[in-house]
Design a protein that fits this description.
Elements lengths: L2 H16 L3 H15 L9 H14 L1 H17 L5 H13 L1 E3 L4 E2 L4 E2 L4 E3 L2 E4 L4 E2 L3 E4 L6 E5 L4 E2 L4 E3 L3 E2 L4 E2 L4 E2 L8 E3 L4 E2 L3 H5 L5
Parallel strand pairs: 1-4, 2-5, 3-6, 4-7, 5-8, 6-9, 7-10, 8-11, 9-12, 10-13, 12-14
Antiparallel strand pairs: 14-15
Length: 208
């Protein structure tokens, strides 16, 4: 085996080891999704959250596809052949949800509706909310994609491209194109995306 093949094999093994357990991820996803839908589950029992996850999968193509992705990732982590490919295509057909094999999606992420593409060496941290028609991906020829920090919000139609980091609690506006790092707690809009400043709010009493 060549050194390159050995490195690829080791990388795939590392990614698979980092995929979260299926039930842990789905329950965390259900808590965040339900919160966004006005049904907070902060003090709910695991059985109550599981029931909510089943209800969300029934009523929401996006959540169903996300749960199918979770099953695909977990089966890949366990080294199961063939079935992950079938589940991957099923998630695409149900809700247009494409999440590539090198992607790490931590438990507790809200994918609203579907029509989302995430590919490359990408990491999505807990609390992130990603709206429809978003692309999170690569700038050729690098295979390293974005790191999406905790509690980031990415608006509909936005693109986050290349080896950039979007900091915690940052917000990316609808249809923005992000090609550079976004600092924590910053809102960016436009093409290419730039920081949005609300001058009226800053001029108001107590504004910062």
């Amino acid at each position: 085996m060549s050194d390159e093949n050995a490195e690829i094999k080791a990388f795939r093994k590392m990614v698979r080891a980092r995929h979260p357990r299926f039930l842990t991820a789905v329950l965390a996803d259900a808590r965040l999704t339900s919160l966004h839908r006005g049904r907070p589950l902060a003090d709910a029992s695991p059985a109550r959250v599981l029931a909510e996850a089943l209800r969300l999968a029934w009523e929401s193509d996006g959540f169903l596809a996300q749960s199918i992705y979770r099953a695909k990732a977990r089966l890949q982590g366990l080294g199961v052949p063939i079935l992950p490919r079938i589940l991957h295509r099923l998630a695409i057909s149900i809700s247009g949800l494409y999440i590539g094999d090198p992607v790490i999606v931590h438990p507790g992420v809200h994918l609203a509706h579907g029509q989302i593409v995430i590919d490359g060496i990408v990491e999505v941290h807990p609390g992130a909310t990603i709206f429809p028609f978003v692309t999170i991906g690569l700038r050729a020829p690098s295979m390293v994609g974005p790191t999406i920090g905790p509690r980031v919000t990415i608006g509909s139609g936005a693109k986050v491209i290349g080896a950039v980091t979007v900091g915690e609690l940052a917000k990316i506006g609808a249809n923005a194109v992000v090609l550079a790092d976004v600092p924590p707690r910053t809102t960016v809009v436009g093409v290419p995306a730039a920081e949005h400043r609300d001058d009226a709010a800053e001029g108001a009493p107590g504004g910062r």
